[in-house]
Amino acid sequence: MTELAQMFYDPPKVYAAIRERKIWLPAFVAVALLTLISSILIINLVGMQTITRKQLESNQRVARQMGQEKIDEAVEKSDTPVRKAIGYCVAVIGISLYLLVVSAIFMGLMNVMDAKLSYTQSLGTLAYSAFPFSLITAFMSGLILLLAADRAELNLQNLIPFNPAAFMDAATASKPLYALASSMDLLSFGQIGLIGFGYSKVSGKSFAQCVGVVAALWAVYVLLKTGLSALF
C-alpha cells in the first residue's frame, strides 16, 4: 500500500517494485474505487434525471427518433436505485476492463521490442501510473460539483476544463472537432508521459521508445473516437 503514496514522490522506486515483485492489485483496486467515488458523486449530486436528459438530448439523432414525450418518459423512469446501481457498476467495470485490456496491448507492443514484459508487470505499470491521475480527477470532479451554482448546466462529458473543448459549445460545435478538442487534455498528456516513464523503468527500454508506444496507442484511440463521433 505504501507504493500508492510513493507514486507522488518516488515513482522510480514503485516501478522497481513492479519489476521485481510484480505488484498490481493495490493500484488496480484504488483506481476502481476512485472511479466509483466519482460516479457516486456525479449521479447523486447532479441526479439521474438530469444525467439521462442530457445524454438523450445531446444526441440529435436519438432525440429526433424518440421525440420529446418518450424522452420525458425515460427521464422520469431513470431515477431509481436500480438505475443508480447500474451506473456505479458500469463505471467500475469500464475502468477495470480498460486496465486489463490496455495493459495486455502494452505488453504485446513492448514485447515486440524484445522487452520480455509479463502481464502482471504491464498491469502493475498501467494501474500505478493511472492512480495519481484518478485521484486528481476524483478530487477535482468533486470540487467542481460541490462549488457549481447550477449542476444541471455542467458538461458531464468534459467536467474538468483542461482541454479546448471546455470552451466550446457541445450542442453547436462539430462533433468530430469537439471529440478531437476534448482529447487534447493536459491530464491525458501527463498520464502519457508517466505511463511511458513507468514502462521504461519496468522494461528497461528507453523513455523515448516507451512514450512513443503509449502516444501511438493514444493517437489511434483519438482517431477512432473522432471518426465514430462523425457517424453517431
Describe the protein.
With 232 residues, the chain is an all-alpha fold. The chain is built from ten helices and no strands. α4 (48-58) runs antiparallel to α5, α8 runs antiparallel to α10 (207-231) and α9 (186-203) crosses α10 (207-231). It is globular, with a radius of gyration of 19 Å. The mean pLDDT is 90.
Can you lay out the helices and strands and say which pair or pack?
Elements: H1 2-6, H2 11-21, H3 25-46, H4 48-58, H5 60-78, H6 81-112, H7 119-147, H8 175-183, H9 186-203, H10 207-231
Helix pairs in contact: 2-7, 2-9, 3-6, 3-7, 4-5, 6-7, 7-9, 8-10, 9-10
Largest sheet: none
Instruction: Note the total helix count.
Output: 10
Q: What is the string of helix and strand elements?
A: HHHHHHHHHH
Average pLDDT works out at 90
Structural class: mainly alpha
Number of strands: 0
Share in β-strands? under 5%
Weakly predicted, low-confidence segments: none
**Spatial separation of the terminal alpha carbons:** 42 Å
Shape assignment: globular
> Over all CA atoms, what is the radius of gyration?
19 Å
Return the domain count.
Answer: 1
Q: Could you estimate the helical fraction of the residues in percent? A: over 70%
Please describe the structure with a list of short key phrases separated by commas or semicolons.
232 residues; mainly alpha; globular
